[in-house]
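Researcher: Please predict.
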Amino acid sequence: MQTALIFAGGTGRRMNARSKPKQFLELHGKPIIIYTLEHFEYHEEIHNIAVVCIEGWIKELEGLLKRYGITKVKTIVPGGETGHDSIYFGLRSMQEFSREDDIVLIHDGVRPLISQELITENIEAVRRYGSAITCEAARESVVCSIDGKNISDVPPRAQMYTAKAPQSFRFGEILRLYERASEDHVRSIDSSHLCSLYHKPMHLVTSTKNNIKITEPADFYIYRAIYEAVEGQQIFGI
């Protein structure tokens, strides 16, 4: 079976949204989290969805699931202090209905511009290679600075990518990695970073274009523009 683990436990401090967390902000009357969930709800190879949510907004989310006919959500659990913790809590909640070799696609609740094809490519890559890290080629030069003042390295741009989502794995393997990190008191930025810390092999899957994460106000307006362009069938390379 395949399960989508959607983590939406962030409060969205950088959004300056005082009334709602970023994942509950609305576009044309529908919350961002629902746009994201619909991609997995409508994919024929996704059997279950687990959601990590801000504790005080779980009831709100449950109501939205009923309103928009999202039926694949099997569990909703409160988020942790960090994204790392939220993913770990979500993985632990999946033990009730997941098997060792099941596939889990870990995805941001505020990354709604994925596609059915990208979900399929993640699933197929895990079946073939054991993992799938969705990445986008760097469009500009990437520099490395150790102290934040001086540039220590400029890697070849052709070798540089940005890790995005979904990030997908065999359920048992990624759960054990987070359990190991918990024992070692290790915290990661995301699952690809955690795999890197423990020297686990990862397979790259090319991201769809404009697979943005809505973190700051500008991201929301970019998302709205792209969404409305697609809706209006204004094809300009999306």
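Model: The chain has a mean pLDDT of 92.
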